[in-house]
Amino acid sequence: xxxxxxxxxxxxxxxxxxxxxxxxxxxxxxxxxxxxxxxxxxxxxxxxxxxxxxxxxxxxxxxxxxxxxxxxxxxxxxxxxxxxxxxxxxxxxxxxxxxxxxxxxxxxxxxxxxxxxxxxxxxxxxxxxxxxxxxxxxxxxxxxxxxxxxxxxxxxxxxxxxxxxxxxxxxxxxxxxxxxxxxxxxxxxxxxxxxxxxxxxxxxxxxxxxxxxxxxxxxxxxxxxxxxxxxxxxxxxxxxxxxxxxxxxxxxxxxxxxxxxxxxxxxxxxxxxxxxxxxxxxxxxxxxxxxxxxxxxxxxxxxxxxxxxxxxxxxxxxxxxxxxxxxxxxxxxxxxxxxxxxxxxxxxxxxxxxxxxxxxxxxxxxxxxxxxxxxxxxxxxxxxxxxxxxxxxxxxxxxxxxxxxxxxxxxxxxxxxxxxxxxxxxxxxxxxxxxxxxxxxxxxxxxxxxxxxxxxxxxxxxxxxxxxxxxxxxxxxxxxxxxxxxxxxxxxxxxxxxxxxxxxxxxxxxxxxxxxxxxxxxxxxxxxxxxxxxxxxxxxxxxxxxxxxxxxxxxxxxxxxxxxxxxxxxxxxxxxxxxxxxxxxxxxxxxxxxxxxxxxxxxxxxxxxxxxxxxxxxxxxxxxxxxxxxxxxxxxxxxxxxxxxxxxxxxxxxxxxxxxxxxxxxxxxxxxxxxxxxxxx
Length: 681
Hints:
Layout: H1 3-23, H2 30-34, E1 58-60, H3 74-83, E2 89-93, E3 96-100, E4 111-114, E5 119-123, E6 127-131, E7 143-147, E8 155-158, E9 165-167, H4 171-178, E10 189-191, E11 195-205, E12 212-214, E13 221-231, E14 249-251, E15 254-259, E16 262-264, E17 270-272, E18 277-286, E19 292-294, E20 302-312, E21 316-321, E22 324-326, E23 332-335, E24 341-351, E25 355-360, H5 371-376, E26 389-398, E27 402-410, E28 417-436, E29 438-444, E30 448-451, E31 457-461, E32 465-467, E33 487-494, E34 509-510, E35 516-518, E36 531-533, E37 539-542, E38 547-558, E39 565-570, E40 573-574, E41 581-582, E42 594-604, E43 606-612, E44 616-627, E45 646-648, E46 653-655, E47 669-673, E48 676-680
Parallel strand pairs: 1-2, 2-5, 3-6, 4-7, 5-8, 6-9, 7-10, 8-11, 9-11, 10-12, 11-13, 12-14, 13-15, 13-16, 14-17, 15-18, 16-18, 17-19, 18-20, 19-21, 20-24, 21-25, 24-26, 25-27, 26-28, 27-28, 28-29, 28-30, 28-31, 29-32
Antiparallel strand pairs: 22-23, 33-44, 34-35, 35-37, 36-44, 37-43, 38-42, 38-44, 39-40, 39-41, 39-43, 45-46, 45-47, 47-48
């Protein structure tokens, strides 16, 4: 071979070598396919569909004018992103610090760097993509990297480890919030529409606002985030400028996998908001932040599973919250929930976590308010009312004493939190348990809740608890043990989920809460855990010992096509046909129609009710008190919980809406007024 030919071949090979090297920086998505870890019954998350990355479809930002000495490289980086053909390709950010983000260099009104479909944005080892300082970058909720209101799919943002960095220079932004300056930072990375997104193997730090958002209520789905480190200072730090509203990963879409991430930030570490469904988060470490969070927008959040999470220094551990929308006057116009169900939190280890487990359906309310007042002012149910149902904590433990409440669960009087199970959960905290408007809180399988000082049960209002393993020191008794002469509020749900009978069983029908129902008809169930009750038949509820029922809630519908039904009688009191009316199953087959009824006379021993006009399909909730002996004649105290009536010890009302001076005119005997014993001499 001639020397000239050899020289030409060698030169060509040398020229091709850098391009070949660039092409090999993209490792494909085989590892993600192997790591799917799809829960049983779920559909696997779809991964980006991309072309083979070659030198022909690889674009280096330096070739488009980017420089580490430039004050801003936004236009140059965007030119490289725009150069990617419709068939797909990769943009490479080499080692070095690359400034971007000035308002006057933006080529789009909606995002600083706009990424289109089938694009890989690759940060090499040692590469830092750094946002320009506060005042130069847009502060009107423009997102920094991604695509806003654009239906783009099959996008990868990746690095080569923690030396591949996206830096938001957030300190001055957070200080602006403290100074009450007008600004509204957007997310550092956000995809609002489209499918199949992958973010991996890099570090995101010091973001002005949210670090990574998937969907933001516009329908993005099928996203994967793994091996990503996120760091922002705590919102409570005293040693540096605290960060604000810096959620680590915010999810609003469906089918998302998040794993092997390490997140410390000033707000929620990972948060699910409206329409987040089939969300699987596993093998993650949470440092500072507000924990594994749901809300404050919780509409249609279903099938969420956090697994194998280690927390250290996290303000909140497992946290769920539904907010509310208000007008300019502060009046509540709507809530932010509806349709919440099936959330799992398994294999958690918490160290230096302030509040390990909290649910808050009155987000940002005054928690010192009287729950009886909240109940009296309950909102009417609508499509925005939160309906939390089916929450599991399994294999969760704290390694030290938490600063806040061991358990803090605040439902709504019109829509209780339902079916919360703590399975092998050990929590130790300075403060005890505060629950309001919760139905069926279950402790099982070696669960144990302790508090450092004071009562373990701080409050248990209008709630039911099933303590199967003496987790709260009460054995099988779900209510705090009162001293003689005191009363404890109780609630009993009578529906298909609490029934221990089977369809076709004859009377009496039994329930796991100690109640039973007698009638001339057999047991049968209908939709949404309701039980069928024949028209014109009086049903008798047998109550547990020492229980006085003061109110009852009936929820459901008429189980006939063209008829309504109504409650004709309750505890001996009859009602008109237009008083408590339930719709036909042709128009409604749920429990949204419900009536809370205060008994004219509290019921002990038995309670009767009679449906009329058509067969009823109802869930019945009974509320009242459990009383202990006063030590005087070994009698059982009874009381009316939510009003100022006076009762004698048999439960008979003596005076309606009494005042304190009315006690002076009573005959000799023992009475109950405002849940206190009064002896008339």
